[in-house]
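Example record

One chain of 268 residues, shown exactly as stored in the release files.
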Amino acid sequence: MSSEPLLRVALTAGYGDRTILRDLRFELRCGEILGLAGASGAGKSTLVLSLLGLLPWRGGRVSGEVVMQGENLLAFSESQWRRLRGRRISLIPQSPILALNPAVSLLRQFREAWRAHENGQGEFRARLEGLLEEVQLPAGEDFLHRKPSEISVGQAQRILIAMALLHRPSLIIADEPTSALDPVTQVQIVDLLKRVNRSRDTAILYVSHDLVSAIQLGHRIAVLTDGAIVEDLPVAELARASHPATIGLLKALPVPPEVLVSFRDHSG
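Predicted structure tokens for this chain:
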């Protein structure tokens, strides 16, 4: 894991005269997983939209800096953002079924995602087959010609992870990626994201209200409340948390955080 930041964020964002994020700051290094935890209304969705250059499309405003590999993304034009989204930064959205186009096959959706940044159909098929194997899905024509309604929610989430990896991005933003899944599938998706991080050295910003999965996955945990990050600690040091928001989240855990950390370390 590199010590140099891949991403350095210092931004303020909101809608009209309402400020949602107030001088929110964090850094993320290459190959690192940062679990960003916060209750509903803390500003997680506003942050995700800001990092993808999409907040203005929702009528919002954002100022400050989102510096990635020396470039302030907030100064980008929309055409520059379109070249960046999916290639350098990818998103795994919250609702897998809603995120996929219900009218077209899985294969066509992969092709359209590929054509956004690449040509070369031979390379596409080789990349696609490798990704489907990595996310433990079949690569046969029968499966790829299915529509989203013909696969499970867990399979749909794996499809979206494969799509996020299609162009080998440096950063994946995972926005509540387990919230629509049953407990067994949640564990499988967290394990899959761990493998992706280790095999590709891909940085992951894991945004969730679920502190359990954030601890199971992350190298660090940042706590977002009232539009600001109030604590940022390595998972092994959560016991020394001092902010009331962090302490409240830790008290709501089913077991002490050190038990989750120990289980994670021994299981993977």
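Notes: The mean pLDDT is 91.
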